[in-house]
Amino acid sequence: xxxxxxxxxxxxxxxxxxxxxxxxxxxxxxxxxxxxxxxxxxxxxxxxxxxxxxxxxxxxxxxxxxxxxxxxxxxxxxxxxxxxxxxxxxxxxxxxxxxxxxxxxxxxxxxxxxxxxxxxxxxxxxxxxxxxxxxxxxxxxxxxxxxxxxxxxxxxxxxxxxxxxxxxxxxxxxxxxxxxxxxxxxxxxxxxxxxxxxxxxxxxxxxxxxxxxxxxxxxxxxxxxxxxxxxxxxxxxxxxxxxxxxxxxxxxxxxxxxxxxxxxxxxxxxxxxxxxxxxxxxxxxxxxxxxxxxxxxxxxxxxxxxxxxxxxxxxxxxxxxxxxxxxxxxxxxxxxxxxxxxxxxxxxxxxxxxxxxxxxxxxxxxxxxxxxxxxxxxxxxxxxxxxxxxxxxxxxxxxxxxxxxxxxxxxxxxxxxxxxxxxxxxxxxxxxxxxxxxxxxxxxxxxxxxxxxxxxxxxxxxxxxxxxxxxxxxxxxxxxxxxxxxxxxxxxxxxxxxxxxxxxxxxxxxxxxxxxxxxxxxxxxxxxxxxxxxxxxxxxxxxxxxxxxxxxxxxxxxxxxxxxxxxxxxxxxxxxxxxxxxxxxxxxxxxxxxxxxxxxxxxxxxxxxxxxxxxxxxxx
Length: 620
Description:
The protein is an alpha/beta fold and 620 residues long. The chain has 26 helices and twelve strands. Strands 2-1-3-4 form a four-stranded parallel beta sheet, with helices on both faces. Helix 2 (42-61) packs antiparallel against helix 4 (96-110), helix 3 (71-80) crosses helix 4 and helix 12 runs parallel beside helix 14 (357-374). The longest helix has 20 residues, at 42-61. The protein is globular.
């Protein structure tokens, strides 16, 4: 078909690569289409499109000149209008026709004429959480104009499935809802199921953004969930439970094209519910992730060169080679480094913007031995399997934990969303540990229907279980956010019925210092969240400055506040709590409150700098 396809992820921060777009990349590439992936500043994309047209025009003007060597300068001229930069470029000296083409390109960019002659036949945009609403909608409205026909713009993913009407109203694009799990979802008559296609990992090399989760195979072996939890979006995103999706072929195809990946990250929502559970574990083992399995890093340069030779995503692997050249340069002794630099400079391969596939392949004879010499991998590392969305504690038993222990599961993630599930959760943890699974993690929902003290109880139980069982259990408190509620989907302002803004900020302040997790260690936990329930409530009500800089102020200002706060008469205490709960102190009218109340409320106005100054004055 030879369609030009643009796949875009909005420029928000996220941990995992966009699996939906990676499957679409495979689909379109198998169809013979030119696939491009973008994540970043959309004006950079626009400038690149304009400069690509400019380079074609310059080539028409003079086919003998390698204009691409000037691409970095041309991008700057187009973006900023700094045409004077061309005065120092040999190709443009005494070449008024070429300079005029650059000026025209600058005007075209400034007037956004790239929208008037859209270069792409298909445009696909993924969406994630609804609180990324603004950046996602802005992205859709920008890149939809780069598609030749509006009907060929496709929006999909979580946000578009949860809020399809709102997305349509904001963009004029009817989004695709749910999974691409039927033949002909894109091209009528095509029998492929896009949702089961292997991922195209090469597109991740086309962008500068690096996902925190990497060097892993990403996959599903089941879809959906048998539960219908009130807080969960899975029933709408994946409404039908699928017991089994094959993994082996996906991994083999990925390994053959992109090289061995270290880990296996599975995003199944409830794998224990599958009737094919034993088969799933056996297949994971057969794919090289059995207990004790190790990994030897492959030769990334060799993979990149082979893909260039095969003509598989030249855009990605040209960039990959430039990155690898830079890594190689850092390892070389001075003489070899100098020689490599001169060769790269001569071939215009110091930057991906100016590099070409042809020049990279010419350099291979010189560069390949250097990689073999300086990038020897001799140490194997442990591979891990991570069912990242968690395991259902209610379904854990001796049989399935014994089976799970046959693979390198680390960590075992178990949701612990309600204190009422304490007995079920505790039994699940004890069962897992009894079968040798001692590295655990759990998600703890809060700000839903729970009470603040219930979060404390859950965290404390994990600390106690760590001590008793000799296990490592990391808790990840996760604030509930109603992502499909029209009143809250654009922000994170929702407050649960038993919570208030101050409590939410207090929990977040503590978690910021612990990097979002609560680990083993009773002393550490008690310092962070309190040795008992009263201390926990004290931390919740404590001025934020004193929470964040606890060790700086706990023996002086924080102690003063605490004594005054809990000494307030009941009626005054309730008045102060009602003010603190709102967590807005900037325009507080102190004249409305008693002297005792004012004496407590003043601490909530204290910034870190002011607190430090108060300490100096007290100690002087």
